[in-house]
Amino acid sequence: MSARARVYAVVAAAACIAIAAVVGGTLLESRGQSTTAPGSVTKPRPGIPPVFFDFGVRDDREARDLSRAAELLNAKHVAAARAIFARYHSLQAQIGLAFAAWPHNGLDTLKTLVAHNPQSPVAEYHLGWALYWSGRVADAATAWRRVESHFADSPEAVEAENQLYSNDKPGLPDLVLPVALPSTLNPQRLAALAAAARRPDAQAKLAYGYVLWQLWHRVSAERQFAAAARLAPHDPYARTAAAVGLFTKRAPARAFGRLGPLTAVFPRAPVVRFELGLLLIATAQPAKGLAQLRLAAAEAPTSSYARDVNALLSRLGKHGTK
Fold it and tell me: What is the pLDDT of residues 51-62, one digit of tens each?
């Protein structure tokens, strides 16, 4: 995807988030409970807990099959999903089978899988869902916090944050960087990006970090961004990426504390205010975020940032938001 297309896609997503912040509620409110209330226990939920399997750049038969089975299970096609999970013996397949048979010994099965795989974020994350579906909301939150803290570089940590902080935009903050990326990713291309990033090359580190960010390996991505910023301290893109890379929903002040001062360091670089605006919108602060996006557009009125920010503001205007 080109940088221009990435800006457009990111701004379109920001429009949806800002509109939702004005006219809608939050996921936790729709659940009618808080995952952070100590000792919180509710009635077991009907249906089947969701599964989340992220195989990264894997494209082998098992990864494709288990991804398809997860989609089927989440769409409530239980028998079809179970038939696929039963073909394999991996941890993901065992989790899938346990959830496909829910509630039959499901929670005990997940506890056993965690005990046998203590270094697995996949097992711990799904234990959270098993606890949540069993009505043990506070215990589910504890499991998800363990994923977030002990396996911070995993996609499951990002998903755990999605459950713990559902007021915020799901996933990681959006980044738009002027780096050339392959149109498709596979293990070989990822390895090539990693090899290039081992050189003292800020752009190569930005490119590799950006791919890692998209794959939800945020700790590894942040390290690449920080290294790029050290190599290119006068590059607003490298410095901005290094700041955004510090973001966690648990402690967003780290990213804001680094990103805010960059507006003075790079007063004519729209990327700084653009990313600051997106970060504010993503953390349920739409009014402040839109103000920063307006400033980003004003700093470079002929840029792709300005064109798409103006489109966003126009769209929001139709919903009564200025």
Answer: 999 999 999 999
DSSP 90: S
Q: Which of 164, 196, 211 is the last residue of a domain?
A: 164
- Give one word for 65, left, alpha or beta, with left for phi > 0 and alpha for psi -120 to 50: alpha
DSSP per-residue letters across 30-46: HHTS-TTSTT---PPPS
* End residue of a domain, out of 139, 164, 189: 164
Range list of H helices, the chain: 3-23, 27-31, 61-74, 78-85, 91-100, 106-116, 121-133, 137-150, 155-164, 187-197, 202-214, 218-231, 236-244, 253-259, 262-265, 270-282, 286-299, 304-317
**Residue 273 backbone phi and psi in degrees, to 5:** -70, -30
DSSP letter at 25 equals -
Token pair in block for residue 17:
């988030």
Residue 320: alpha-carbon gap to chain centroid? 29
Q: Look up tokens 């293990």; give the residue.
A: 187
**pLDDT, tens digit, 9 for 90 and up, residues 82-102:** 999 999 999 999 999 999 999
pTM: 0.84
Please tell me the predicted confidence (pLDDT) of residue 316.
61
Q: What is the DSSP letter of 121?
A: H
Per-residue confidence band for 217, with pLDDT thresholds at 50, 70 and 90? very high
Radius of gyration of the chain (CA): 21
Task: Give CA–CA dist 34/19, Å, rounded.
Answer: 23
Provide the 10 A C-beta neighbour count for residue 70. 23
Please count the structural domains in the chain: 2
Which sign does the torsion angle of CA 91, 94, 98, 99 carry? positive
Residue 29 belongs to a domain: no
Domain range for 181: 3-24+172-317
Q: What contacts 234, CB < 8 A, 6 or more positions away? A: none
CATH code at 116?
Answer: 1.25.40.10
3-state helix, strand, coil in the chain (%, to 5): 65, 0, 35
Asked if the structure places residue 322 within a domain, the reply is: no
